[in-house]
């Protein structure tokens, strides 16, 4: 089960709650836009731009404690350049899980 968490952010912040909130605010602001852009680029078949966006998004997976999902995103980033969509459904499930998580914190 995919379970985003704040552990990495808390370690990085080392007790600085303001820093935690600032980092979360950036993620909460950027992620919805990036998710929308992902679906737009996919629809428009702009696969090189899509791979670049996946590369950017996967770092948020790491920040949200999703190590296995970061590996999946890396693989999908490579695959999408070859128009291989085998990991698309799993990747999109992760995107939706993160969206849900970000609305609850």
TrEMBL record:
Coiled coil: none
Domain of life: Bacteria
PROSITE patterns cross-referenced by the UniProt entry: HPT
The keyword Membrane is assigned to this record: no
A GO BP entry: phosphorelay signal transduction system
Single GO molecular function: protein kinase activity
Keyword annotations: Kinase, Phosphoprotein, Transferase
InterPro entries documented for this protein: HPT_dom_sf, Sig_transdc_His_kin_Hpt_dom
SUPFAM superfamilies xrefs: Histidine-containing phosphotransfer domain, HPT domain
Domain HPt: 16-105
Protein name as it appears in the record: Histidine kinase
Phosphohistidine modification, residue list: 55
């Amino acid at each position: 089960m995919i379970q985003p968490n704040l552990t990495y952010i808390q370690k990085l912040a080392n007790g600085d709650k303001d820093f935690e909130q600032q980092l979360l605010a950036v993620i909460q602001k950027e992620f919805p836009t990036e998710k929308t852009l992902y679906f737009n680029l996919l629809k428009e078949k702009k696969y090189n731009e899509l791979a670049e966006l996946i590369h950017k998004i996967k770092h948020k997976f790491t920040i949200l404690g999703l190590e296995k999902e970061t590996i999946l995103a890396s693989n999908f980033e490579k695959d999408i350049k070859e128009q291989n969509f085998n990991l698309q459904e799993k990747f999109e499930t992760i995107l939706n899980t993160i969206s849900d998580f970000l609305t609850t914190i």
